[in-house]
Amino acid sequence: QVQLVESGGGLMQAGGSLRLSCAASGSTSGINAADWYRQVPGKPREWVATMGTGGNANYADSVKGRFTISRVNAKNTVYLQMDSLKPEDTAVYSCHVSFAGDPVVYWGQGTQVTVSS
Q1: How many beta carbons lie within 10 A of that of residue 4, not counting itself?
Q2: In whole angstroms, what is the distance from residue 110 CA to residue 45 CA?
Q3: For the chain, does the N or the C end have fewer beta carbons within 10 angstroms?
């Protein structure tokens, strides 16, 4: 059974940086693709970034140029580097990862990011 454990959230002042990690435990055959989403209470979940099978990355317009998604396959870990943080980035961030040969797509438990002005 694969589990995703997120870390790296917290409180940061506007303009600062945080790096979120999403580490997979359990047996996998390697990361296939990964996304990050975020959600504010009372609002729909918002897509933030995707890294595809070939390593190509795409970003929501709201974070483009400030956030970077990456992965280290040897560690079964996906990252979201968040720079130039804004108060509107405040949300619970969740990773969403698929693994080679596994039909299940897994969700992390979510980590709170709070950006103060």
Answers
A1: 21
A2: 12
A3: N
pLDDT at 33: 96
**Inter-residue contact 113 to 93 (CB < 8 Å):** yes
The answer for residues whose C-beta is within 8 angstroms of residue 45's C-beta and 6 or more apart is 37, 38, 39, 94
Picking from 36, 31, 111, the residue whose alpha carbon sits closest to that of residue 75 is 31
pLDDT, one tens digit per residue, over 21-63 is 999 998 888 999 999 999 999 999 999 999 999 889 999 999 9
Q: What is the pLDDT of residue 29?
A: 87
Beta-strand ranges (E) seen in the chain are 3-7, 10-13, 18-25, 31-39, 46-51, 57-59, 67-72, 77-82, 91-99, 105-107, 111-116
Mean pLDDT of the region 62-67:
98
Write the DSSP symbol of residue 88: G
Q: What is the separation, in whole angstroms, between the first and last Cα of the chain?
A: 41
